[in-house]
Structures are given as structure tokens and as C-alpha cells.
Amino acid sequence: MRIAGGVRAILTYADRLAARGHAVTLIVPARGRLRALWQRLSGAGPEWVAGFRPRVRWVARWDGQDLPDADVTLATAWQSAPVVATAPARCGAKFYLVQHYESLYHGAPEMVDATYQLPLRKIVISTWLADIMRDKFKAESDLLVTPVDTTLFHRVEAPVTTSRPRVLMLHHDYRWKGVADGLEAVRRARARVPSLRLVGFGVKPPREALPYDEFHANPPQDTLAAIYSSCEMYLCPSWDEGLGMPPMEAMACGAALVTYDNGGSRDYAHDGKTALVARRRDVEDLATCLARLATDTELRERLAAAGQKFVTTAFDWDRAVTRLEAVFAAAPKHRESAC
């Protein structure tokens, strides 16, 4: 239950379903003997989500036979998909929430690919993932784009005393997050815009000295909107994304987006309309887009306004939860009585 975009989506769905009166239980494997004992006894929830309503059950490991009775059981990653697939019928209808094509980076490709062929109804968070499920695995899926929480991510006053324009980028240890590409794109853009200031943020600070002009390490959740709002632009150099929540959050806070065509971004980053989109892993194209946005105030403001309007109206949490309820309700019933 660490801080991450995909985890936030899982926890938000769980919490909002619980708020609607559904009995929701999160099954979470614990790590470390002493921590595991404390977690199991306390039923501790995510520390970074205030007032989390679902029940949390800590287990030594996932086991299909130990899952609770349910109307619906939802796998949330490739590691839990086989467990849900082998769970007994008392666990209800079986679903698989696919938030990335995890074969690319998160496990042995043959093992991960095998999970997409399991008899689980797929729910995907982007059109790109729906296309992969259909074209590669002959599996139909329900598309449910993860919305931005606009109560947390919205434009706020954020006084700035540094040079402008400011560009924000997520720092991450995963190579495919494209940090090296982003740093190089900023270096090249600065040849045209010497005042360009690079602002970084992430759960952990860089392990080595990197050319961030400003860095926010593990910022509290209620300060993220101010960080996003303090920057005119957001740079997403990820090679591949299942969707990409930080770019959407930045757009909701009024930042203009520059991104690679990374798959998941296609649901909200429309080139020249809501963002500038560079060819995947083309650093020169990314730098050109960034420099263009940094030097063209009219374009930057137009894209920022259009992007903010799109991500805050096209996707909505209340509608998403209602849709998820409908997907669950339409599933064939696998047991006679509800829990």
C-alpha cells in the first residue's frame, strides 16, 4: 500500500465502494516478521490515506483457499491474478484490474503474459491496454480510465520567487520512467531558454547528484497541488505508461503537459490540443516540444487551459465508481448467497 499512482487508484476505488455501503476487504501480504505481526493484529490501513474505510486483512502470502467469501474478487496485479483464478467459487465473480502491461518491466514476460490468459474478466485503465488485451491475448475488457481526485488536485495559489518558466518532472529509479531522457531534454531546451528551471519530486531523492534546480522529496499529499501549480509545465519522459496519473494530476492543477507517446497518455494527451506529444524515446523531439512550450506563452496557456478542462470533466470519480458497480453487477453469479 505504498504511495504510487496505481495503488492510489486501487485504494480510492475500495474506499469509495465502502462509502456506498459495500463490504470491502483488502488482502495485503505483509513483509518482515515483526511488522507482519503488528499489521495483522492492528489491521493497519494506508498511512497516507486519511479515514480509509475498507477492512484491511494482512496475510503472510496470498492463498486462494484463504480468501474470504465474496460476491466479487478482484486481482490488482500479475502476482495476485493466479491466486484469484484458483480461488473457490465462494469468492464470487473474478476480475483482474490491469493498470499496466506489466510484461514490459514488472516480471518475467512469459509469466506475466500467462496471467492475461487466465479466466478473469479484465478491467483496464486505458485504451492502449484494451488494445493490447484484445490484439495480443484475444481478451475483451472493460475500459475504466482512472480519474484525477479534484478535491486533492486543483489549481492553488503558489507564490514563486525563482526564475520562470518552471518545468516539473517525477524522479523514479525505474529506468523506463525515462528520467535520463527527461534530464537530457531539459539540458537541450535550456540552450534556447536559459531561464528554464527544473523542479523534481519523488518518494525518494536521487541517489546521486542530478541537475535539479529544486527537489521535493516525499512531499505530503496535501502539498502536491501547490508543487504542481507552481510550475507552468509538466514533463513526462516515461517510455510506457498504463495511464500516467502524475501528468493528469499536473494538468488538473493547470500545468501544460509535454510527454512521450507512451501508450496510456493517448486517453488525455492529444497533441496540439491538450498537450505536446513527442515520439516515444525520441529525446530530440521531446526537447523540441519542451523548448517550444517554454518559449510560446500563448500556446502554453492554451494547452494548459484545455488540458485542465479535459482531465477534470472527461473523467470523474463518481461516474467511475458507478461504472465499476455496474461491471461487477453484470458478472455471472458464481454462488447462491451474498456475503
Task: Describe it.
The protein is 34% helix and 16% strand. With 339 residues, it is of the alpha/beta class. It has two domains: 158 residues, 3-Layer(aba) Sandwich (Rossmann fold); 148 residues, Rossmann fold. A six-stranded parallel β-sheet has the order 9-8-7-10-11-12, with helices on both faces. Strands 3-4-5-6 form a four-stranded parallel β-sheet. Strands 1-2 form a two-stranded parallel ribbon. α6 crosses α9 and α8 packs across α10. The protein is globular.
List keywords for this structure.
disordered C terminus, Rossmann fold, 339 residues, 12 strands, 2 domains, 16% strand, six-stranded parallel beta sheet
Short description:
With 339 residues, the protein is α/β, with parallel strands linked by helices. 34% of the residues lie in helices and 16% in strands. Helix 6 crosses helix 9 and helix 8 packs across helix 10.
Order of secondary-structure elements: HEHEEHEHEHEEHEEHEHEEHHH
Radius of gyration: 21 Å
Taking pLDDT < 50 over at least 5 consecutive residues as the criterion, the unreliable ranges are 335-339
Q: Biggest sheet, strands in spatial order?
A: 9-8-7-10-11-12
- Give the integer mean of the pLDDT values: 94
Write the layout of secondary structure elements.
Elements: H1 5-19, E1 25-29, H2 33-42, E2 55-59, E3 72-75, H3 81-85, E4 93-98, H4 109-115, E5 121-124, H5 127-137, E6 141-143, E7 166-170, H6 179-189, E8 197-202, E9 214-217, H7 224-229, E10 233-236, H8 245-252, E11 256-260, E12 275-278, H9 283-295, H10 297-313, H11 317-329
Parallel strand pairs: 1-2, 3-4, 4-5, 5-6, 7-8, 7-10, 8-9, 10-11, 11-12
